Amino acid sequence: MTQLPSTEAFERAGLKAWPGITVDWDRSWIRRAAGGYTKRANSTQCFDPDDFEDADLRVISASSWMIRHKIKPVFRTTPLASPELNATLDEAGWQSIDPSHLFAMELGDVEADPEAQTLAVLDPKFLSVAKRLQGYDDTQMAAMQNLLAAFAIPSAGIVLSRDGQAVASSIMAVADGIVITGNVVTDPTRRRQGLARAMMQSGLAWAKREGARYAALNVQADNDAAQALYRSLGYTHQYDYIYRIPGGSA
Length: 250
Description:
Elements: H1 7-17, E1 22-26, E2 29-33, E3 44-46, H2 55-68, E4 75-77, H3 83-91, E5 95-106, E6 116-119, H4 124-134, H5 138-148, E7 155-162, E8 165-175, E9 178-186, H6 195-209, E10 214-220, H7 224-233, E11 236-245
Parallel strand pairs: 9-10
Antiparallel strand pairs: 1-2, 2-3, 4-11, 5-10, 5-11, 6-7, 7-8, 8-9
Organism: Devosia equisanguinis
Protein name: Putative acetyltransferase
GO molecular function, one term: acyltransferase activity, transferring groups other than amino-acyl groups
């Protein structure tokens, strides 16, 4: 069996594949802000379980930094977070929300669907499709575009069509040989037709051409349908993570 990359490798690839617009490092803790678009790009997380000195003061400092950047204080705690950091958040009354998983696999040969398109992430056609399928308003769309403009690695908006109508889309980006997939969405009136699978395979075919050797994505623990899709494509569960927010913020 092929050895997949480490938790740290996946997390560092994720920093590039879903970047913050403003970034600040506090030793191995990274603070990121992106106008509030997604918790992943607007949170603080730790990359070294042994980096826990002054955790209580650094949690306060990170929270203040996020507030100054007009986002809500959020910590993303992965297996790289120290027990001391988690204990500090517990003692301060931070809530746990949105338990999630990272799924990954070795990327083999994949065939693209003939009705799939690979577009630049800021291509107006892709943005129009994403806005419609995601149900975003203008404010949400502007925030998404601002984040996409921060991409500095190979990336693509994947659009699958049927009968001339876009029915599924996602964003894929390749960092350090790992393709990270996000914003997977299917037309709600066209579900259970294999469209998300065809769209995903098409994007993975693009990533393979871009030199990706592995594929990874994040999925919420309560999204059974998405997990079933990803497992059918060959992804397997690697590790869990969770978001922490101050008590009373939910």
